[in-house]
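Long-time lurker. I teach an intro course on protein structure, and each term I like to show students one example going from raw sequence to a predicted 3D structure in token notation. This year I'd like something fresh instead of my usual example. Would anyone be willing to generate the tokens for the chain below so I can use it in lecture? Attribution to the forum is fine with me.
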Amino acid sequence: MNRDVDPIELLIQELTKFPGIGEKTASRLVFHLLHCPQEDAEALARAVLNLKEKVRFCSLCFNLTAQEQCKICQDERRIEGVICVVEEPSDLIAIEKAGAFKGRYHVLQGAISPLDGIGPDNLKIKELLERLRRGKVDEVILATNINVEGETTALYLQKLIKPLGIKLTRIACGVPSGGDLEYIDRVTIGKALENRREI
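-- Reply from a regular --
Happy to contribute to a lecture. Here you go:
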């Protein structure tokens, strides 16, 4: 490492590598760190190292955890017979924040994307199928993203899961609550019409 590099500039450069952090925000964070007590800066550094050293994938659902199995998989109050399949741990967190789902999860660790070189073998699909074959699963909810990669992944999973005789559902998509139609893209409006229900 070059000793002439300004530590302020170096940390700003490192922070801008984070998603959603531009140079302005990175600068504010650096100056905040400069003004906070030494113990706070050391605690932050330890927390980052701790994160990298201890966090791994849950052995059952592939969520992030510091233990062998994540808290959701360990929770006996969760409905074992319903599995919600998501692409990333951040998707799982979003569903959990909604507070409407009480089943279990399976995190694929991505979506099928041939342009990015990601095929089915790069995802946790084999592990999902093993889990479905050995467990007492009544329903699988496909909650992959509503984009080309997510839809491709959902269709691929549908072909593999249907023959197992397990109820298979897909999350609904369409107009968000409080959304004005004039500001919503045509794909979302199309999906909303396609997924309409009788009232």
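Some talking points for your students: Residues 38-54 form the longest helix (17 residues). The chain has a mean pLDDT of 91.
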